Amino acid sequence: MCSGCGYPQLAGHWTDAADTSAHDRMAGRMAKARLISSVLRSHHIGVKSSFHSPDFLLTSATGKRAVCRSLDEVWATVHSWTGGGYDPLADLPKGPA
Amino acid sequence: MTDDRLSLSILGGFLGAGKSTWLRHRLFQQTDRPIILLNDMGDVAVDEYLLERATTLKVVAGGCACCERLDEFLGVLRDICNERTQEASEMRGSRTLIMETSGISQPARIARAIAQDPVLQRHLRLEQVTVVVDAQNGLGQLLADGLARTQVESADQIALSKVEDCSPADIADLISLVRRLNPTAPLRAYEFGTERALPLLPPPRRADFEFETDESPLTAVTMQVGSGPDDPSEWHAFSVFMSAVLHRHGADLVRAKGVIASPRGRLLFQSLAGHVQPLELLAGGIAENDNKVVLISRRQQPERLMKAWQTIRTL
To answer: Is the ipTM here above 0.95?
Structure first.
């Protein structure tokens, strides 16, 4: 909490800032994982998150696996696996999952 | 005879330098509640939510006050002066007007335009031009961007923001560069708008600086999140999209700012050069411009950003 203006700054990764409970956090991660899987379908990368783990699990069609704690780590892994080939402004998914 | 003119201070500084944060905290520390005139490059002036301690808050949004919105800006200034003239002298409230410029404005141009306006000359006394320099990112900005250098050159005083996270050696290098651009303006360090004594600084590691100029124009686009200002349903899509764009194009996405409706409440989202600042949970009710995020970028065409966002929203 800033003593000057009273607006609290939220700790943790910014993409988790909206979560008010552990349940929210995990449900939010599952929703994000579904969305990212849709986005990365053309790169054959799958993303999962479950109630058993606070992480994102990335898998590739060639058998690679990676556990990522945050979306920043997810995108860094995707960048590495695709050789920089994924561009969120260019690789637009075709339609609803 | 006393000088009854409004005292005008211009607050400038590059995109994300911390102008609004600095001003917001300064307002909490002073008893006088000034009139604030806010200029924002984007269509949505997010900072108006943060400056609630102003007596009067006027906004010129959707362009820069030193060029494309100059006439509108001068008109708003004349309106403020007229309103004040119509009040009985004993009823006149604030004697101070602070103008926060957009991050791409040149304060010197604004000061010149005011000085050349015969009406404003009679009603306003330009007190000072304060330019905020981000101690964390300022060195890179000043080396890379001619506009940031011009802002520093025009300052009467310089406020170093965000010094709390910088090493003495980094601050020494930045001050060395600032002093080369503006050798005379008093320089003070601030942590959230509160003045801090600078630590004992070592000699700067750099004395020679090579300047570059990125000629790519800055463009602003406003991204709509959710179906309305109170709809939190696209928070997850927003966080996925923005995190991906910032990871890949962060260097070109100079600034992003907006208040997002989320399941937790109204979140102030701000990024600077690809880095997201800790989100803040805002008080107050839903505002008209909630769920609108202004993106200011180089090289990324607004159409591409909008098309990609629209695609993500439909998934």
So the answer is: no
Residue B52's pLDDT is 64
Please tell me the total count of domains within chain B: 2
Q: Do A88 and B241 touch (CB under 8 A)?
A: yes
B209 is a domain residue: no
pLDDT of residue A54: 79
Q: How many helices (H) and strands (E) does chain B have?
A: 9, 14
Asked if residue B155 and residue B36 are part of one domain, the reply reads yes
B257 shares its domain with B291: yes
pTM of the predicted protein model: 0.76
Q: Are the beta carbons of A39 and B245 separated by less than 8 Å?
A: no
Between A22-39 and A71-81, two packed helices, what is the crossing angle to 10 degrees? 20
Residues B172, B250, single domain; the answer is no
- Residue B74 within a domain: yes
The confidence score (pLDDT) of residue A97 equals: 46
Question: In terms of domains, do B74 and B173 share one?
Answer: yes
**Contacts with B156 (C-beta within 8 Å, 6 or more apart), sequence order:** B128, B129, B130, B185
B268 and A CB contact within 8 Å: yes
pLDDT exceeds cutoff 80 at A56:
yes
- What CATH number should be reported for the domain holding residue B75? 3.40.50.300
Portion 72-91 of A in contact with B at CB < 8 A? 72, 74-76, 79, 86-90
Partner-chain contact A15 B300, CB within 8 Å: no
How far, CA to CA in Å, does A56 sit from each of A19, A30, B74, B144, B226?
16, 9, 53, 37, 25
Whole domain around residue B135: which residue ranges? Answer: 6-196
Closest residue, chain A, to B262 (C-alpha): A18
Distance CA B217, CA B234 (A): 30
- The tokens describing B188, both together, are 């003070």
B181-230 residue pLDDT tens = 999 899 999 988 888 998 899 999 987 888 888 778 888 899 999 999 99
Intervals of chain B under pLDDT 50: none
pLDDT, position B44: 72
Interface mutation vs chain A, best among B245, B266, B280, B297, most A CBs within 10 Å = B280
**Residue B156 covered by a domain:** yes
